[in-house]
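Reading a protein record of the kind used here takes only a little practice. An example makes this concrete, so a full record is given next.
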Amino acid sequence: MRTQQVGLFHQSAFGEKMFGIGMPELIVILLIVLVLFGANRLPEIGAGLGKAIRGFKKGISEPSEIDVTPGKDEEKKDKKH
């Protein structure tokens, strides 16, 4: 089978694979997570991941709250000295 890499994706006869991980690999990973954490904890883990992703997207899209440009107060202090 021949694959072609385009950025982070690998294209093969079975479709695109991100980071070289296909559907069978994802199923195995999900089964391992299910065995490790149990069915009762999966909704909690999913909710936590969702909140983390939303917070990350919000942090990226909002402008920085830290203003490093000199303001009028600093200019007045410099003129006094």
Summary: The CA atoms of residues 26 and 64 lie 36 Å apart. The mean pLDDT is 76. The helical segments are 23-37, 42-61, 72-80.
